[in-house]
Specification:
- There is one protein chain.
- The protein has no helices and 10 strands.
- The protein is mainly β and 113 residues long.
- 0% of the residues lie in helices and 49% in strands.
- A hairpin with a 6-residue loop joins strand 4 and strand 5.
């Protein structure tokens, strides 16, 4: 399994970004998918999960109401819409299968004025 995350960048507090994760090497529609993030000098943190069909989502309390996970199985892509961004959201963001986790390079998100 391989994951290529994109869409990160520098954004001001209160701004929005949409991350994409291109998945390959397995049948995306068969797996629940998750997003994680890792801030400097902190452990990797789970932030959101979506079931294989896209009908069920779960979020960490730290992002609930601000972030939305979605997927397009036909495009082999998982998304993370991030709104009302805060400086504490600054991290490298990764997507992976919810089980049998492997990691790509991630995409850097920096929230700063």
């Amino acid at each position: 399994a391989q994951f290529v995350e994109s869409g990160g960048g520098l954004v001001q507090p209160g701004g929005s970004l949409r991350l994409s994760c291109a998945a390959s090497g397995f049948t995306l529609s068969s797996y629940s998918m998750s997003w994680y993030r890792q801030a400097p000098e902190k452990e990797r943190e789970w932030i959101a999960t979506i079931n294989h069909g896209g009908s069920i989502t779960n979020y960490a309390d730290s992002v609930k109401g601000r972030f939305t996970i979605s997927r397009d199985n036909a495009k082999n892509t998982v998304y993370l819409q991030m709104n009302s961004l805060k400086p504490e959201d600054t991290a490298v963001y990764y997507c992976t299968r919810t089980v049998i986790r492997t990691w790509g390079q991630g995409t850097q998100v920096t929230v700063s004025s």
